[in-house]
Predict the 3D structure of the following.
Amino acid sequence: DVQLVESGGGWVQAGGSLRLACVASEFTVSTDCMTWFRQVPGRGREGVAGIDSDGTTEYADFVKGRFTILKDEAKNTVYLQMNSLKPEDTGMYYCAVSWERLCPPDQADFAFWGLGTQVTVS
């Protein structure tokens, strides 16, 4: 079965760093768009960073310059390196796959989601 398993969340002081990992099973991360989303308290689910099948990346304005998405095809894993964390980055972080080579703008086009990993910044 297709699986996405996130890890790497935790508690960190403001200004600190975390690296999230999303391990994929039963498909290869190199062929499809992979995106990190987050659910922030009091707000809807929002896209954070995405990476196309060709490696093109895109970021939400609120993380540009602080977060980096990258994939390790040998490990079939997508990472989210988060630096200069702020309290407003607190939330549940999810990875998702769209089954498309280019990242779609609509969350509804993401076919499969992991269960998430909690990030708390204080």
